[in-house]
Write a structure and sequence with these properties.
It comes from Anolis carolinensis (Green anole). This is Reverse transcriptase domain-containing protein. Helix content is 49%, strand content 15%. It is of the alpha+beta class. Among the domains are: 66 residues, no CATH class; 212 residues, no CATH class. A hairpin with a 2-residue loop joins strand 9 and strand 10. Helix 1 packs antiparallel against helix 2, helix 2 packs antiparallel against helix 3 and helix 7 crosses helix 8. The radius of gyration is 28 Å and the shape is globular.
């Protein structure tokens, strides 16, 4: 049809005859309709073939809905990868250097763990059915370091399970995490499409780890989770990455606390602390001390030490990669074990906060303080300030950086004027009261009406319906 279109165009241009132009116009309309129909058939076939593969389906949909890049092809050069790698490494190094230069008057028991007899010194070895179960549960996320796609490994697990079992059991028995699985691949992701892609600070590092390493982590995580449940080690206020303590549970507990105090006529200050690169600055020595303090020893502690040490990461953009950068601190992002280890790292904080009569809710690195008091008790904010100072000292001693400029405070009360003079102070920065804050993805307002949250969900739903409308032809 394209050749026929050109022939008709040449005939019309040779004499500029009106009838030739009419015939060309009619053919152009038929040509456009044929292209549209062929595109519809092609995309419908792609959508149908990906109906049982969500990742592939969303790739097709994103190709339909996402506008093409009008600014030219992105810079995926090796030089840009190296620049990203230096930026991410320097960010963590700068935070750590602040801790090395600031002398805090914090006693050693803030970072040390109490002595505890060894309760778990060896892992239970796995059987073939355990490996098959983990293959079924683990997300098939493929890393460029994997020798073959993870979905292929899952499909061929009948022939690979015995080999994987040998590798996993050797690692558990010897207390060593394979060095070849310690490399992470970082893919920078722009936080918002509207942000400037030339500014590295506008990107979020998304870590991708080898699939076999995640399978091995699943084995350890299941046994470590069982130990945490049996010993009841974690703080009751900690949620996330533990059975019965998901996001919904944390939100229900928080809103219920605030609403009960509101019904009593009390005023509540909700402080949402912001931590900078919390997972990346975890101190290995302190974490291993906490792990030993909870009763881990032998090859279990040796394995966790091997899991943390000797790691590196590189940045990948398209086909280009940076040189590996060694990691001397932090728990690996995108890891199965890291959230659990971070919960253990943060466990002492709850006791410190409650010692001031302040309630807390902890979800990984989301730390929320809640202090309620009668409206006439203006000195209550001083109690909260002392609590925030103690939290700040503990964070510095444990190599975690608080960001006062991004910390938010919500006043929950019947009357807005009850918040006059109640601005808390963190590290010398007065924290202004916000009309609404976002807690674990839910917008909370001062009266707990949830109207801003409902409005935001409605706007998002209408936006999604608008996108679905664009898919109707396919």
């Amino acid at each position: 049809m394209k050749r026929k279109k050109r022939e008709l165009e040449c005939v019309w241009r040779s004499e500029y005859n009106k009838s030739d132009r009419t015939r060309l116009g009619s053919y152009l309309m038929a040509y456009a309709a044929a292209i549209k129909a062929a595109r519809r058939v092609h995309l419908a076939a792609n959508i149908a073939s990906a109906q049982n593969r969500p990742a592939a389906l969303f790739r097709v949909i994103r190709g339909l809905l996402t506008p093409t890049n009008q600014g030219g092809s992105p810079d995926n050069s090796a030089a840009r990868c190296e620049a990203f790698a230096r930026f991410f490494a320097d960010k963590v190094a700068l935070i750590r250097s602040d801790f090395d230069t600031i002398l805090t008057a914090v006693s050693e028991d803030v970072t040390s763990a109490p002595a505890c007899p060894v309760l778990l010194d060896s892992f239970q070895l796995v059987e073939l059915e355990d490996v098959d179960k983990i293959f079924g549960e683990a997300r098939p996320t493929t890393c460029i370091l994997d020798p073959c796609p993870s979905w292929l490994v899952r499909e061929a697990r009948g022939g690979l399970a015995e080999w994987v079992k040998v590798v996993v059991n050797a690692s558990l028995r010897e207390g060593k995490f394979p060095a070849s699985l310690k490399m992470a691949v970082i893919k920078p992701l722009l936080k918002k499409p509207s942000l400037d892609p030339t500014q590295f600070g506008n990107f979020r590092p998304i870590s991708n780890l080898p699939y076999l390493g995640k399978v091995l982590e699943h084995v350890v995580a299941s046994q470590l989770q069982g130990f945490l449940v049996d010993t009841n080690f974690l703080d009751p206020a900690q949620s996330g990455f533990r059975p019965g303590h998901g996001t919904e549970t944390a939100l229900v507990a928080l809103v219920d606390d605030l609403r009960r105090e509101l019904d009593r006529g009390s005023v509540s200050l909700l402080v949402l602390l912001d931590l900078s690169a919390a997972f990346d600055t975890v101190d290995h020595g302190i974490l291993l001390g906490r792990l030993a303090g909870m009763g881990l020893g032998g090859t279990v502690l040796q394995w966790l030490h091997s899991f943390l040490e000797g790691r590196s990461q590189m940045v990948s953009l398209g086909d280009a990669c940076s040189a590996p950068q060694p990691l001397t601190c932090g728990v690996p992002q995108g890891s199965v074990l890291s959230p659990m280890l971070f919960n253990i790292y943060m466990k002492p904080l709850g006791e410190i906060i409650r010692s001031f009569g302040v309630r807390c809710h902890l979800y990984a690195d989301d730390v929320q303080l809640c202090h309620s008091f009668p409206p006439v008790t203006k000195e209550a904010v001083q109690v909260l300030n002392r609590c925030l100072a103690a939290v700040s000292d503990w964070m510095r001693a444990n190599k975690l950086k608080l960001n006062p400029d991004k910390t938010e405070v919500l006043l929950v009360s019947r009357k807005a004027e009850q918040g006059i003079g109640l601005q808390p102070v963190l590290d010398g920065v007065t924290l202004p009261l916000k009309a609404q804050v976002r807690s674990l993805g839910v917008i909370l307002d001062s009266s707990l009406s949830l109207e801003p949250q409902v409005s935001a969900v409605a706007r998002g739903a209408f936006a999604q319906l608008k996108l679905v409308r664009q898919l109707r032809p396919y």
